[in-house]
Amino acid sequence: MVIAIGSPGAYLSAKYLYQALHKDKVQEADVALPLVIADNELNLGRVYETSAYEHRLRVTNSSDQPVTIIRFEKSCDCLGITPSAGVTLQPHETKTFDIKLRLASQLSSPNHWGGEPLRVSLSAVYSVQGHGQYSMHWLLNCLVVPTIRLSRSTIHLGTLSARQPLIEQSLDIEASDEVRWIDCESPRDWAVEIVPNQARSSPNKFRAILRSHGKLIPRPVSDTLRLTPVSRAGERLPAKELRLVGEIVRDVIAYPREIHHGRQPCGTAATEALQLRSLTNQRFMVKAATSNSGDLEVTRMLGEDEIYTLRLRFTKTGPQEVAAEFTIEHDDGMEYRLVVPVRYHGLAGP
Length: 350
Description:
This protein has about 350 residues and is an all-beta fold.
């Protein structure tokens, strides 16, 4: 990736009366620009995709007067600069600024693995000896070189049972020709196998096979895997992240999993039905079906497989939540409680 910052021509105005009359406006000037960045710092060459590319720029005040950078302005949120405001450079003084770029190729065509040009403008709004506001403009040019492309950035697991033997998912990966291998860092709950496509192709193709490791534990799943391409020379290139999201439950869930009655006048009532199901089609028994509120009645429908009616009386104003509670027992003796929230917003009567 190439980042080049080029300074335009004449900038600073010497007409102080004009400056004083327009001190609240950002002005374009007509004489030499006071701030200088050396050209050899502005061209970064070819840089790989990364979420945080770091570089330093040395800015010199080439004038004989103090110059204060009031703030920086930029055309893209992908660019950050530190310090970002309130920096004074004395005559002929040089100060260093840290920039951070979030660089991601937007091209999806397999014919663009050589890189994608990116241009970001950067402007410094400044004053001279505390007078006026002027702006200078630079252009950051870079060539964003992709390393790997994931067919998905997030794998949605959905709702899974802890009683199933394992979770398995796969993901297709394309890589530039210079990538020889892909390493993966994953949480201990996951084992990841990277399988290369045996047929020679350009770009290179891999498949990541993800399998749960060990016994499944009921929990919300929000895990991150880091896929790091390795070049043919052994260089570790910038990594990409793959997110796994979902939920592991004990086994039985309710359809629907929660009930919303919305806005309801107090003194009225409503009835909803729900069904309990095993995600693994295993036999289970409901040992008890109760509620945590006298306003909610839970009744099993006769002749139906684990279908219940929930009749709720709306008695309180404002946001309210009660719950139906089911005690589940499997054939192997495992027992647990399933809670179904029931919500409403009570309205006062006329």
